[in-house]
Amino acid sequence: MARWSWFRRDAPLLSVTGDTGSGPVVVMIHGIASSSVTFHHLVPLLEPTHRCITIDILGFGASPSPEGATYSLDEHAAALDRTIRSLRLREPFTLVGHSLGSLIAARYAVAHRRELDRLVLVSSPIYLPPAMIGDSVDRASMGAYFTVYEFLRLNPSFTRRTAAALAAIAPIKNVLELTEKNWQPFMLSLQNAIESQTTLADLSRVRVPIDLVYGALDPFLAPGGLAIVQQLRHVRAHRVSGVAHIIRPKLAQAVARVVSEPPAPWGASNGE
Q: Which of 82, 108, 148, 173 could pair with 77 as two cysteines, CB 3.0-4.6 Å apart?
């Protein structure tokens, strides 16, 4: 299989699935095994006052799956970079990332602070090697995520059946889609972008305000990683009670409030 280069000049253009509204620009990128339908409840809340642009990430939705891609954070971010540059945006914008999209957004933000007004990370699966965590409970919890993800990667039939069952009861049609077509992007993104992430290091280097929005019932959030992120002085954390991982109406309302208020200077975390 030919090795695909993720450098800026070679990165593919992603699918821009929506561009509605007018005002300050908000670019939204979704998570793994999903598409821009992730923002079904969020876009209507923002488009009366913002220009809302939704983009399918590399390998998912309507975006391409390049031969030889490894779906690392660098490759995902390079494709996002080329796509955003093609939009020729004139002013700094807000970048919203959900789940894996939040990790991609953080990697993009490290090198593009002049293009960004702020970074909004939603339902972020921020992990680090268990050996780096002092608390034994948090260390065991972190290790469990890696064990589960490895099992999912190594058992495609089980994983696709489980995803199909979850998709059947999901509140938004097509918000979770795992098929033979996107299995390779899913498996490699899981291994090379989520499990192998350095998002904590990325966030420490970001030089724009960061808002972290998450549901209190989100099963994909690791307490150890979340606690460390909230200690960064330029991060505000917004905990939303009664919601999990998917952006349902209540979580969408919380994200819309965060996007609509002025970015905060480097400040302390807060909760909702």
A: 108
| Alpha carbons 43 and 253: distance in angstroms, whole number | 10
State the CATH number of the domain containing residue 112.
Answer: 3.40.50.1820
pLDDT in tens, 167-209: 888 878 889 999 999 999 999 999 999 999 999 999 999 999 9
Q: Is residue 78 part of a domain?
A: yes
DSSP designation for 48: T
154 to 13, 163, 190: CA distances (angstroms):
30, 15, 11
Q: Is residue 57 part of a domain?
A: yes
Q: Rounded to whole angstroms, how far apart are CA atoms 168 and 12?
A: 32
pTM: 0.93
CA dihedral 121, 224, 167, 51 (to 10 degrees): 0
- The helix or strand, by DSSP H or E, that contains position 168, with its residue range, turns out to be helix 156-169
* C-alpha gyration radius of the chain: 17
Retrieve residue 177's tokens: 């889609």
